[in-house]
Design brief:
The chain is an alpha/beta fold and 239 residues long. The chain is 51% helix and 12% strand.
């Protein structure tokens, strides 16, 4: 099976380790991964801020970059939701086609590859934060949890208020910084209360926001993308 990796802007610019982990994971499962170099921003920041005219060229460019691939996989619930939910409304037939072929990473693992035990090893206590786009727009449900529960050595702890927004919301964090910070603080307080070593999520944009609060508070846990955990093995462990 051959797929295209849609790495997203945040991962490319700030969290390249997540893109690398995604490739390692998929290749370990026998998937051939391509990286179309023509990919750029999918247009989500512009669209969410109300700039539809500026979004449309990015939609066309993204659709062209991934043309011909049966599956497009991304380690980002928010970007997957942008393509799946909004591209059909603002693009042409190629955008509609891309929407039907785009999968968030955990969806692809569970629904397409039909696997939950990916052979990962991560001997830490983990609590999982389900980001809003994955939870509400994509309906990821228990897919991420099922993957985490199958990781050797991992102890999964329930996060109080897990379904509450972390407060990032892209430009929301800039326009409503006080509210955003308070929501992030609530999320961190709940995560710390679990006693976990790691706060895990499937969207680095949210983890960036939560991680900022964690560092400022010098909280005793770190934010980490699900892909990094699933890519970790006994032979090549993530410290």
């Amino acid at each position: 099976m051959r797929v295209a990796l849609f790495v997203t802007c945040v991962n490319d610019a700030v969290y390249p380790s997540t893109g690398i982990a995604t490739v390692r994971l998929l290749e370990r499962l026998g998937v051939e991964v391509d990286f179309p170099e023509a990919q750029t921003c999918c247009g989500q920041p512009q669209f969410n801020t109300g700039y539809r005219a500026q979004t449309e060229p990015l939609v066309r460019r993204t659709a062209a970059a991934f043309e011909g691939y049966e599956y497009v996989v991304t380690p980002s619930g928010s970007c997957a939701a942008m393509v799946r939910q909004h591209y059909p409304k603002i693009g042409d037939a190629s955008a509609v086609s891309l929407a039907s072929r785009t999968y968030e990473l955990t969806e692809f693992l569970v629904d397409v590859l039909q696997v939950t035990d990916v052979g990962a090893y991560f001997p830490h206590t983990v609590t999982y934060h389900p980001s809003c786009h994955g939870l509400r727009m994509l309906g990821l449900g228990d897919r991420p949890r099922r993957l985490l529960e199958a990781v050797d050595g991992l102890e999964l702890r329930e996060l109080p208020g897990a379904d509450e927004c972390c407060g990032f919301g892209g430009t929301f964090a800039l326009k409503n910084s006080d509210v955003s910070t308070a929501m992030g603080q609530d999320k961190v307080n709940n995560a710390v209360s679990t006693g976990a070593d790691v706060l895990c999520g499937a969207d680095n944009s949210c983890l960036m926001h939560i991680g900022g609060v964690l560092r400022r508070e010098e909280a005793p846990l770190r934010a980490l993308h699900l892909a990094d955990i699933l890519a970790s093995t006994r032979e090549e462990p993530l410290v």
